[in-house]
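Ligand: guanosine-5'-triphosphate. Inputs:
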Amino acid sequence: MPGTSDGPVPRYRRVVLKLSGEALAGPAGYGVDPEVVHRYAQEIKEVVDLGVELAIVVGGGNIWRGTSGSAKGMDRTTADYMGMLATVINALALQDALEALGVPTRVQTAIEMKEIAEPYIRRRAIRHLEKGRVVIFAAGTGNPFFSTDTTAALRAAEIEAEVVLKATKEEGIYDKDPRQNPDARKFDEISYLDVLQRGLKAMDSTATSLCMDNQIPIVFFNLNVPGNIKRVVLGENIGTFIRGETGA
Ligand code: GTP
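Predicted complex:
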């Protein structure tokens, strides 16, 4: 039962985890690597076992990136719809891996494809979460021109999640690119406005603004350190915490 175990007490009751599509690709750099998905599923299960209500938004960049397609001359809307379909493939892979571990899940798609998954229905998503099911939101927001980061921010606002966990390949947000600048400084905490004004690579500006307007903090952290999802959920200060101005 959520929140009734004797173990460590999670900092959050309901979270949205944003997983990039690339995270599912493994060493090949593209497609879905079932072993990698299985590893993430195990980490996700540890969080669910804490009694946390977990919703996942998954990207599709391991299969198709709408922006790259449109940069090469393709119609942006078409390219983005292809990206949304890619997220459905990833959602099904995650669902499969989670259910193999005994974690109940429901996939909901923003574009109706009823033979494959439930359509996105906010109240139903909340009900699933209350019943301890992991809800995987697929097909982005259903609209072109919106990223899956924005989907995570939107769904978090809709389901009243307390935080967006942005799982990435980076340790956190830096004032400049740490690969090219050995003196780059990692922010432990930063405001939404600073992220926007400095043009820092955290979430895209639409997603950041949506979180800012709805006062949903974002934790930006490295997914590739085993156990990190659980650490963040338990409130350990890793990565970068994005929120409103301190004292505001
Ligand atoms: P509760 O009634 O709250 O227990 O939720 P539930 O999801 O178990 O009930 P429901 O009878 O709605 O769903 C049973 C199964 O069918 C679940 O695995 C759902 O994900 C699946 N399901 C429900 N609606 C759809 C749909 O529109 N399309 C697809 N493909 N599956 C669906």
